[in-house]
Specification:
A: mainly alpha; about 85% helix; elongated; B: 5-stranded antiparallel β-sheet; 11 strands
Chain lengths: ~400, ~150
């Protein structure tokens, strides 16, 4: 631009002066009342947007807008202070910023919770798929067992496989429960409430998965015909573990994943647990009775852990009583038969599952062990050789006395 | 002794009279009555406006009559440092200056602004005057209770 031209110079100066005048006129045209009204309206709008914000990103943008609002109106702070007395410009903007920061913090927590829920959902999907796969395998094996009745060796192999499948499922479910236990056992009420706000969108939350698992266990217990006592004992042990975990974290799970109806949700799971136990017990007592009978041990009838313990004690007490009365070889054989079955099968093979499944406690097993020792002592027949040796000894003593008397004479 | 009592009595009496005299003519100088922000008031059906913040309530019927108007949506009111009230509204030709008295506002002055009427007016409190802004034309007028400056 050539400023040497005097006309151009004058024109530029005029233009600059015009703009300065125009801008000052613009400032002058403002209404103080309007300025404070605009400030209030803009601040209120920003506060409202803070309340309605749904992401931390949105709240970050609002922070920029609050900074901009502060910059725009700080020169009018005196007017605003007068208008909003006893409040002040600084205090009202600070309050808005603090409110925004509080919302941002809350949203940060919510976003973290959302991530946790996503992780949970993914875990639940994997778990559900694995359980479904195991169920299909289990059903397939059950079908094959029924079809292969003609071939004993094939059936035995299939039953083995079926047992392995159940064990695998138990192990998988136990891992899942251990994970749940670790995660929810120490969760406090505020965490439960925070998580419950975001878990509503989960298709399968841990509570629903637990219900599915129990339903599947009931199904397995009701339909399995090829299983034996150790299998049912294992199921009862699994039920015992499941009930224990539920007792420890059930309350927290229902508060987190079904906060609208926690009492009802808890009752539903407890009803399912009771139904599962009934299904297992229905098979277990028959199976135990058969196992004892097959080993020539006729226990009294039992349909619960208490009556089973009573039947065992009655059997041993009866044996001791008979042995004390007759002390025959037959009694001793009965004792040995029970002792062997008790030690080699009941304790060695089933012992852990009996305790885990809350069928017999360790102290009840020990009590029977003590009684069994007493029975052993009572049942052992006394030897005739001792009696013969006793008679021979007396005869020798008498002979020696006679001999001595004869020698003196 | 008597002389001493009389002197003391005289001094005390003089002091009392002085204090009483001072009380009757006590004047606080340099009071600032200014209202930082104008009040924008909406008349009710009786043409009464009520400024809750600054505690004043009055009828604008006489002002409307003077302006030849039936009603207005809003009345702008501001008080200057001297304590005079300035009143105008959209479409008014004048700014009305009132002086407060016991249960009344006494007209101090009517300041003519425009025969065309002021459009969308606003009062701003400035250091030594009130600024009236015509927010449509952008024109400003500096006024006080004595008139336009």
């Amino acid at each position: 631009m050539n400023f040497k031209n005097p006309y151009l110079k004058t024109y530029t100066l005029f233009l600059a002066l015009f703009f300065i005048f125009a801008s000052s006129a613009l400032v002058a045209q403002q209404s103080d009342f309007q300025i404070q009204q605009d400030f209030r309206a803009e601040l209120a709008a920003l506060n409202e947007r803070v309340e309605l914000a749904v992401s931390t990103q949105e709240l970050e943008e609002l922070q920029q807008e609050l900074v901009s609002l502060r910059n725009t109106y700080s020169e009018h702070s005196a007017i605003i202070n007068a208008a909003i007395y006893p409040d002040t410009f600084e205090a009202s903007v600070n309050r808005a910023e603090e409110n925004r920061a509080a919302f941002a913090e809350r949203y940060e927590v919510i976003e973290q919770l959302n991530e946790r829920v996503d992780e949970l959902s993914a875990e639940m999907d994997v778990f559900r798929d694995r359980i479904n796969q195991m169920t299909l395998e289990s059903e397939d094996l059950q079908d094959q067992i029924e079809r292969s009745a003609a071939s004993e060796s094939r059936q035995a192999a299939l039953i083995r496989q079926y047992r392995q499948n159940i064990e695998l499922r138990d192990s998988f479910v136990s891992d899942f429960l251990a994970e749940l236990l670790m995660r929810y056992q120490t969760m406090d009420r505020s965490n439960q409430e925070e998580l419950s706000e975001t878990t509503a969108r989960m298709d399968d939350n841990p509570l629903q998965v637990i219900k599915t698992i129990i339903a599947e266990y009931i199904n397995v217990a009701d339909q399995s015909s090829a299983l034996e006592t150790p299998d049912y004992l294992g199921m009862r042990a699994q039920h015992g573990y499941f009930s224990d975990v539920w007792e420890r974290i059930g309350e927290r799970l229902v508060n987190t994943f079904d906060p609208e109806r926690p009492v009802q949700a808890k009752q539903e799971v407890e009803d399912l647990l009771a139904a599962w136990l009934a299904s297992v017990d229905n098979r277990l007592w028959n199976s135990l009775t058969t196992a004892f009978n097959q080993n020539n041990i006729q226990l009294g009838p039992f349909t619960s852990p208490q009556t089973f313990n009573t039947a065992l004690n009655n059997y041993v007490d009866g044996g001791i009583e008979i042995s004390l009365e007759s002390n025959s070889e037959e009694d001793y054989r009965i004792y040995r038969n029970f002792r062997d079955f008790w030690n080699n099968t009941v304790k060695a093979s089933w012992g852990e599952a009996l305790v885990d499944g809350n069928i017999l406690s360790q102290s009840e097993i020990t009590a029977i062990d003590i009684k069994l020792n007493n029975w052993g002592e009572a049942a052992q027949p006394s030897s005739r050789l001792m009696f013969i040796l006793f008679l021979v000894s007396i005869a020798i003593i008498i002979g020696l006395i006679v001999l001595l008397v004869m020698k003196r004479r | 002794m008597l002389t001493k009592y009389i002197t003391t009595f005289t001094v005390i009496t003089a002091l009392l009279f002085t204090a009483m005299g001072c009380g009757s003519s006590m004047v606080i100088q340099d009071v600032d009555f200014s209202q930082s922000i104008e009040s924008v008031l909406t008349p009710d059906s009786d043409q009464t406006v009520h400024d809750q913040r600054f505690g004043i309530k009055f009828s604008i019927a006489k002002i409307l009559e003077r302006e030849g108007m039936q009603s207005v949506d809003e009345v702008r009111l501001i008080r200057n440092r001297a304590g005079y009230y300035f009143i105008t509204a959209d479409g008014f030709n004048n700014v009305y200056v009132f002086e407060p008295a016991e249960r009344e506002l006494k007209k101090k002055r009517i300041i003519e602004i425009s025969s065309q009427g002021i459009s969308n007016p606003a009062f701003n409190q400035r250091d030594r005057f009130i600024e009236l802004v015509d927010r449509v034309s952008g024109q400003t007028y500096n006024i006080d209770h004595t008139g336009r400056r």
